[in-house]
Amino acid sequence: MENDKNLKANKPETAPTDDTVIVPAIGADKQPKPGAKQPEAGPGRTDAGRQKPKGEATPAEPAAEPVENEVESRGRKLLEKLDGMLYKPENHSDEFDGVDEEDPAELTERDFEPIRPRRDGKTGCLGGLMYFTFVVCLSVLLACFAWMAATDVLALNKDPIESTITLPAEIFEEREETLENDDGTTETVTVSYADMDFVADTLKDAGIIEYKWLFKVFCLFSNATTKVDPGTYTLTTNLDYRALVTNMQTASGSMATTTVTFPEGFTMQEIFERLEENNIASVEDLYDAAAEYSYNYSFLEWATPGEASRLEGYLFPDTYEFYQGEQASNAINRFLLNFHGKLTADMYAQAENLGITLHQAVIVASMIESEAANDSERATIASVIYNRINAGMPLQIDATVMYALGEHKEYLTEEDLQVDSPYNTYLHTGLPAGPISNPGLASINAALNPADSSYLYYALNTETGEHEFFTNYSAFEAFTATQNYTGEGNSIKAPRGLLAAGRLAPFTSAARAC
Fold first, then answer.
1. I need a surface site. Which of 65, 193, 287, 288 has the fewest CB within 10 A?
2. Rounded Cα distance, 327 and 272, in Å
3. Distance CA 460, CA 445 (A)
């Protein structure tokens, strides 16, 4: 009976369940130290090394009771540690509302199930639909923007508008650049750069383009800054960006033109002023181009750059069509090219027969142009000029004095006649320093083909408006006595077409007149 009681005391009353917490026996997890003497198993000793009392039966060991060793304990702790790292209660506080974490009785089976992946950051079908919608909208916007840009760049479906714009010379900057030729040599050239901000603003204001920034980007990549020229252009919205740049160049089909007529006998100053009045080029730019620009014509071989007067006499009078805002050198070249086209080999031969150069013939022609009343008397006036030069007499032509003064006056005074200038034919014999006007073809031909005469004087007939010619001074004096050429005081009426050598006779000595 006593043994039965001991067996009952060692036997657990109920079988352990899953919820039962197993507590290992004290010292069960302790391992013997290395080298320590193990208790010998034998009769009367239990597994724990305890001496069984004599007569005590060995109780049967419960087979179902789990015993946790040290390896399992460490594995369990490691799993609990990993679980604590993966599962943070603060992120799931709502799951423990009303639950006492210290009370194991309130924990449910859910608390011991494996942790499922969190759904934070996942959008699901709704998020995917929103992303798809965003991509589609962005694509539509980009397509619309690309189409709007293309319509402006390529001039597609634009309302037809025609407008005239002006690119003044002030928006262009000239820079010296060194270029390398194919043979390895270098040369310095002057390159004109346009202010593309001004150009884009002008085109936008005129309604030719829609997007200034897009046009400037195009010009940047197409080097249009150096391709645009000053001038006035008529442009339309049918021109794409590339065509716009091409049509804003000198001599393009879109450049606005102006027709200007220059009569025979105009001086270079008068020609330049008329060009400025018609918005072709400024007088200042024209004089600079006349002085410095190199014009490759054989009739200018005698002249060197530096003086604008070298072109006087060669700006052939005619009707021209200029581009508004045209470069000054181009405008001048039109006159010179026209003059070059009028020259023939016979003209050079005729000048050689007279013993003069072509340049001297142009000087004579300029004075004829200033004096002749009509074409029929040009050759006769030419003969008077040559006869007086051959006789060593001063020409005494008022038009040369006016040219020296730089103005056309109705009256010349004695003081005017004393102006110190190589153009004053009262003080100097022979031809003046250069042409005094730009003669027409009739005067040039008269200078190369003078009449065969012995006239030394001529005077204007105030009734007919034509000239009378004389071989001697007495006949000349008798005629001028019948004409009223003088004004009040010491002034002389100076109508064009009257040789001063004859007009001075009424109040000067014969020696002065000759």
1. 65
2. 13
3. 23
Last residue of a domain, one of 338, 370, 386: 338
Please report whether residue 492 resides in a domain: yes
Tokens of 351: 């000048």
Residues 361, 419 within the same domain: yes
Q: What single DSSP character describes residue 295? A: -
- CATH number for the domain spanning 249: value is 3.30.1490.480
- Amino acid of residue 383: S
Q: Which helix (H) or strand (E) holds 275?
A: helix 268-277
pLDDT in tens, 293-319: 999 999 999 988 899 999 999 999 999
| 72 domain-assigned | no
Cite the beta strand spans of 13-135 per DSSP E.
none
Both tokens assigned to 118: 């969190």
pTM reported for the whole predicted model: 0.61
Same domain, 373 and 327: no
On whether both 332 and 362 belong to a single domain, the answer is: no
Range 403-408, long-range pairs (CB < 8 A, 24+ positions): 403/267, 403/432, 403/436, 403/437, 406/269
Higher-pLDDT residue of 440 and 484 is 440
CB atoms within 10 A of CB 179: 10
- Segment 398-417 mean pLDDT: 89
3-state secondary structure of 163: strand
171 contacts: CB under 8 Å, gap ≥ 6: 194, 195, 198, 199, 230
Give 78-88 pLDDT, tens digit per residue: 777 776 666 56
329 and 386 in a common domain: no
Same domain, 360 and 493: yes
Q: Which residues contact 315 (CB under 8 A, 6 or more apart)?
A: 262, 266, 268, 271, 332, 335, 336, 339, 438
Residue type, 80: E
3-state SS track over 210-232: CCHHHHHHHHHHHCHHHCCCCEE
Q: How far apart are CA 83 and CA 507, in angstroms?
A: 135
Q: Is 503 domain-assigned?
A: yes
Asked if the model's pLDDT at residue 54 lies above 70, the reply is no
Which residue type occupies 54?
K
Q: Which amino acid is at 417?
A: L
Whether 295 and 401 map to the same domain: the answer is no
Domain that holds residue 480: 354-513
Residue 82 domain-assigned (yes or no)? no
Instruction: Assess whether 508 and 370 both reside in one domain.
Output: yes
Among 91-100, 273-282, 485-494, the range scoring the smallest mean pLDDT is 485-494
Name the domain count of the chain.
2
Residue 418 has pLDDT above 90, yes or no: yes
Residue finishing a domain among 338, 371, 390: 338
| Short-list 342, 337, 344, CA closest to 296 | 337
- CA-wise closest residue to 362 among 302, 308, 421, 321: 302
Tens-digit pLDDT profile for residues 182-203: 788 888 888 889 999 999 999 9
Under 8 Å CB-to-CB from 335, ≥6 apart: which residues?
A: 271, 314, 315, 316, 318, 320, 438
What pLDDT sits at residue 470? 96
